Amino acid sequence: MAIRNPHSWMWAEASELLAQAQRLQRQFFRFGQAVESQPRWEPPVDIVASADDIQVSVALPGVTPERVQLRIAQGVLRIEAVRPIPMNQQTTRIHRLEIPYGRFQRQIALPAGHYQLMEQAFVNGCLTLRLARI
Question: What is the model's pTM?
């Protein structure tokens, strides 16, 4: 019976997380028109279910409700929009950009069933959706 070294497993997991973080960081800082049509980031999501519905909360700092497009099809909720880079004609320098910007897309597999969007609200930078089971 082979005994696994827990340190090598933890190192492998930490290395994978670091590589993932580096890929995400590279995504955030791509400039130019050639990549403008590609999604650049995925917002974090919370999903809470009850017997009759599902509540989905999506962190969307700086995204206005008019920019958000929602679609439910084949058991998947698709959310997409654009968070514009915070620059204008008076901007002379960018000191730090840590909050992601650009086009995003998030596809969320829903629990088995059929759903209908019942409520949609933007509160404190979060989009909250209530999907009823139909």
Answer: 0.66
In a domain, 21, yes or no: yes
Residues contacting 68, CB < 8 A, separation 6+? 60, 79, 80, 81, 127
Q: Residue 108's Cα: distance from chain center in Å?
A: 10
For residue 60, which of 133, 131, 123 has the smallest C-alpha distance?
123
Question: What are the backbone angles phi and psi of residue 24, rounded to the nearest 5°?
Answer: -65, -40
**Digitized pLDDT (tens) for each residue of the chain, 134 residues in all:** 555 555 566 777 777 777 777 666 655 555 554 555 566 788 999 999 988 899 999 999 889 899 899 999 988 999 999 888 878 888 888 888 888 888 888 999 988 888 999 999 999 899 999 999 88
CATH of the domain at 16: 2.60.40.790
In a domain, 94, yes or no: no
